[in-house]
């Protein structure tokens, strides 16, 4: 019922749309600095980096092939592997690696949207 309440698109169309995107690709987009800056520009809450769940609906997801999503997925996999290590929180080298992968994702996301990284 909530799908009917919050969407103008029927469920079968939503399913067709969702199979075009890998979850880790979406994770990369949503956690990018591009998404944060975009959402901060349209947020309804007065606190920076505080978004209502509905705000995420306004974030356009670049439509690319599954093959073009692969670099994003690979970076997310690398981040997840590193952050699962028991010593991640105490290991500055691993934290720096994760930060570097995050920067790579940011560059790729800005490229997707045809915008220079700021």
Walk me through this protein's architecture.
The protein has helices at residues 2-6, 11-18, 23-30, 33-42, 66-83, 92-112. It has one domain (22-112). The longest helix has 21 residues, at 92-112. Helix 3 (23-30) packs across helix 5. By secondary structure, the protein is mostly helical. It is globular. It is built from six helices and no strands.
Features:
single chain, 118 residues, 59% helix, mainly alpha, 0% strand
Helix segment count? 6
Based on DSSP secondary structure assignment, what is the total number of beta strands? 0
Mean pLDDT: 85
Distance between the termini: 41 Å
What are the low-pLDDT stretches, counting only 5+ consecutive residues below 50?
none
Largest sheet geometry: none
Dominant shape: globular
Order of helices and strands: HHHHHH
The domain count comes to 1
Look at the helices and sheets and give the structural class. mainly alpha
Helix content: 55-70%
Strand fraction band? Answer: under 5%
From the alpha carbons, calculate the radius of gyration and give it in angstroms. 16 Å
């Amino acid at each position: 019922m909530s799908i009917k309440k919050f969407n103008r698109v029927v469920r079968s169309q939503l399913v067709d749309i969702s199979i075009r995107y890998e979850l880790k690709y979406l994770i990369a987009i949503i956690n990018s600095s591009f998404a944060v800056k975009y959402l901060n520009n349209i947020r309804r809450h007065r606190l920076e980096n505080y978004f209502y769940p509905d705000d995420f609906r306004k974030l356009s997801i670049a439509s690319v092939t599954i093959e073009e999503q692969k670099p994003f997925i690979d970076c997310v996999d690398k981040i997840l592997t590193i952050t699962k290590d028991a010593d991640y929180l105490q290991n500055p080298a691993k934290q720096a690696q994760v930060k570097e992968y995050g920067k790579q994702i940011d560059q790729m996301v800005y490229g997707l949207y045809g915008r220079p990284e700021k």
